[in-house]
Amino acid sequence: MSPNAPLWTADALEAATGGTLHGEGRAITGASIDTRTLQPGDLFFAIRGEARDGHDFVRSALETGAGAAVVTAERAAEFSRFGPVLAVRGTGADPVLDAMTRLGRAARARTKAQVAAVTGSVGKTGTKEALRHVLAAQGETHASAASYNNHWGVPLTLARMPADTRFGVFEIGMNHAREILPLTAQVRPDVALVTTVEPVHIEHFASLSAIADAKGEVFSGLAAGGIAIINRDNPSFARLGVHALASKAGRVVSFGEHPEADVRALRIVLRPDLSVVDARVMGQPVTYQLGTAGRHTALNSLGVMAVIHSLGADLAQAALSLAGLRPPVGRGERTALHLKDGAAYLVDESYNANPASIRAALATLSAIETGPRGRRIAVLGDMLELGPAAEAHHRALAETVEANAVDLVFTAGALMGHLFETLPIARRGIAAETSADLIDPLAKTLRPGDAVMVKGSNSIRMGRIVEALKARYASPPVRRDASALSAAP
Questions:
Q1: Do domains 10-95 and 333-473 have the same CATH topology?
Q2: Fewer beta carbons within 10 Å, N or C terminal of the chain?
Q3: Are 31 and 7 in contact (CB under 8 A)?
Q4: How far is CA 454 from CA 235, 361, 410, 472, in A?
Q5: What torsion do the CA atoms of 90, 95, 97, 100 make, to the nearest 10 degrees?
């Protein structure tokens, strides 16, 4: 989008949403549903949340400089004195959300961008970010912010997409069956990728097959002749393939280490801070360095290369770009912790958790080289939405802890307490009720050479452990020489 071009004109807004603009229009340069992050020029959608109604924040949004606020027609007069408002009507539960969805559809209809959709039980945000990183070097790229992958995040991301976008990358998530269907219908991807199927949100599903069916919904939105990309190593490959073949997909492309994968890893070399992948992409040999660690990210990079090839983008340039990839916040970011007598190493995997992602994080921890007296320490919070098998899933992690030679395990939450009880006494650190209760004991335990990894479901708030350790140790201690001390008043 040209720096001076508006994202939406007043006429385009009214045409797309069916609304009526009241007041003198301002240039619309973005879109927002949150006044805490709203930027001047954003179109503010006053959607109704579970706890608050966005109309409560309309005045604040307009006074902050919002380009306009989208409100229900019944309340337009109430807010028009504070700035321009787009009044919308609808028969649904939330006319404003309906208007945002219509605007998102209009954004998709007006663009000539090649669009990719990413879903999966694990790795969808990291894969989406990798695609954003790689494609941005080849043309104007628009992608979901953070994990904006639900019934709010997808239409909002579409509404933010400039008309001159060359590549669009959309993350699509779900907790229940049939949630992906309306989202992929809005995105209408040219390429749709499923990273993997694992027992995530299993409490809402009858079986793993049911989860695969829900993930397979993403293919229903494919444009005619589009490409479905599926993990060939996953046991649900065949079931996902049925969904792909029932869609408008022109073909199915597979990736993984399987001998029959279309995009296949021939060799993966894992190093503490990066990986090197030798692959064949649709028969073409490609070797690339990946700027993130872990076998799981290396395998997901094959899915990235499959998307790049499917979009007709430059494969060689993509391979070069992957060397500069860095993990998203909470998904593998690494920080040196400066202790009194040396450094320890923090791996921030605090953004959410499930059995597959914790196994991957423990494997990554095992590959980190520790110091002479260093230990590998896992700090784990409860995994949620696992249904009746939750206790068994937590206890089963003990085998992964052992296999990856993790020296100490700290746990937060009652469910992870089952893992703690299963571990040998020598591997037990501290078991606590909350993540906050682990901060001081963990800090006192750390010594130079340690590598500590933090992971858990979002509601357990394992991120506050990461924040506390960074606040205490991320900067080298200030050392003052004797003369400076003697001169001090």
A1: no
A2: C
A3: yes
A4: 28, 9, 9, 16
A5: 60
Fold category of 111-324 in CATH: UDP-N-acetylmuramoyl-L-alanine:D-glutamate ligase (3.40.1190)
pTM: 0.88
Nearest CA to 272 out of 347, 322, 373 is that of: 347
- Give the CA distances from residue 189 to residues 63, 102, 196, 220, 452, in Å, rounded to whole numbers and listed in that order: 37, 17, 18, 10, 39
Distance in angstroms (rounded) separating the CA atoms of residues 199 and 355: 8
- Two tokens at 194? 């499923």
pLDDT at 90: 85
Question: What is the DSSP secondary structure assignment for residue 152, as one 8-state letter?
Answer: T
Those residues whose C-beta lies under 8 Å from the C-beta of residue 329, and which sit 6 or more positions away, are: 348, 351
Q: What is the pLDDT of residue 474?
A: 83
Q: Per residue in 75-94, is it b (16+ CB within 10 Å) or e — as a string?
A: bbeebbebbbbbbbebeeeb
Q: Which tokens is 186 given? A: 């809005």
| Sequence ranges of the domains in the chain | 10-95, 111-324, 333-473
- What residues contact residue 263 under an 8 Å CB cut-off, 6+ apart? 253, 254, 255, 256, 279, 280, 281, 282, 302, 303, 305, 306, 309
| Residue linked to tokens 């995997």 | 349
Nearest-angstrom CA–CA distance, 109 and 390: 43
H/E stretch holding 297: helix 295-311
Residues 6+ away with beta carbon under 8 Å from 129? 143, 325, 328
Is 282 in contact with 248 (CB distance < 8 Å)?
no
Report CA-CA distances (Å) from 6 to 33, 67, 162, 263: 19, 10, 9, 40
Strand order in the sheet with 376-381: 333-339, 342-348, 451-455, 376-381, 408-412, 428-432
Per-residue confidence (pLDDT) for residue 46, from 0 to 100: 98
Average pLDDT for runs of 10 along the chain of length 489: 78 97 91 96 95 96 97 96 96 94 98 98 94 98 92 98 98 96 98 95 92 98 97 98 97 98 97 92 97 92 98 97 90 92 94 93 93 96 95 98 98 98 98 98 96 96 97 71 32
CATH code of domain 10-95: 3.40.1390.10
Residues 412, 381 contacting (CB under 8 angstroms)? yes
- Burial annotation 154-166 (CB, 10 A radius, 16+ → b, else e): bbbbbbbbbeebb
CATH superfamily of 333-473: Mur ligase, C-terminal domain (3.90.190.20)
Handedness of CA 394, 400, 406, 407 (dihedral sign): positive
Phi, psi of 267, rounded to the nearest 5 degrees: -155, 135
Distance (Å, whole) CA 359 – CA 322 = 24
